Amino acid sequence: MKNWVCFLFLALITHQQYHILQIEAIDSFVRRNGIHLMLNGSPYYANGFNAYWLMYMASDPSQKSKVSSVFREASTHGLTVARTWAFNDGGYRSLQYSPGSYSEQSFRGLDFVIAEARRYGIKLILSLVNNYDSFGGKKQYVNWARNQGQYLQSEDDFFRNPVVRSYFKNHIRRILNRYNTVTGVMYKNDPTIMAWELMNEPRCPSDPSGRTIQAWLMEMASYVKSIDRNHLLEAGLEGFYGYSTPQKKNTVNPSGINVGTDFLANNRIPDIDFVTLHSYPDEWLLGSNDQYKLSFMNKWIDSHIYDAQYILGKPILLAEFGKSWKKPGYSTYQRDQLFSSVYFKVYLSAKRGGPAAGAMFWQLLTEGMDSFRDGYDVVLSQSTSTANIIRQQSRKLYLIRKIFEGRGKKGNDPGLF
Description:
alpha/beta, TIM Barrel, three-stranded antiparallel sheet, 14 helices
């Protein structure tokens, strides 16, 4: 009986209500108040997705319709936040093709992405550089410095070398001060952007003590805030514990992972506004069965939500998670089970007034993008059961926010779900 009550309440929330909420939301900046993200004075919850490819596709006139399609499909499922790359360093269709030199065509692609996100009521998290070679990343920055005569031993010199750091600061400055040719708004003044991300999954394995990453994050976070106090800032961390918490480093981390980051120390930096977490048991626990992976993920999320609330005192966003159909033994049921488990953790925290601000699956595609399929992709029109779980989570978070706003009708109790 309870399931039927749930269904009836969920059915009351129409796409039109979503759209009104999203249009209202896009006109204001997301802020932080203690352990909560806030929008217009109410707690803000992000049911979101990753789509790293948005600028890349938008810079090609023949492909930019894919951007509009994915935002339209996302909005009909109540998704409110997208995380994407604000970088493409060197290589094909690059944004920054050499230090300080930018492709106007690619920049206009990013302008279009921001404008379309606003049109569909979706906020953006824009990541500023990659840890990996894809789309350039720290390797490209190091190579640029080498070409200028710098003696650099490894990609990790991205974090240490003053020339490389100056290149990256220049990129930060160019992105934040960009004048959007579609909207007429500078990026640093645009509330469509929810947050900046310093780096996608920063790692410095050459310094497992964590001191190198800590110093870099402090420097770059301070630099971002010196230009832009409007927007939230996060580091892009995966959530691995470091030397500041040796017990958790040895018991919570996946075995053998030590990449020079420290979840607690890194996120204690005052200019880091909220905490991020990634979860990939399929990649981290090779050879383990699916139930063990699911159990690990639940403990992983619980541990970080606890730390966000009671140690860091900041909101936490599960910025990447997913289930790969390329892994042996995959089934849609397993993916749906993982999504449901993640979403329940977020919902339970939100219902209790905790720090979980939302979750963003990797990755959302639209039809006709087969070359971008990496196993973790979700095409809503082709994944009915998963799409329904996503839509239901959007509605549940919507109801919680409405209740906090004091406008929830009698009976719209999130405890029903």
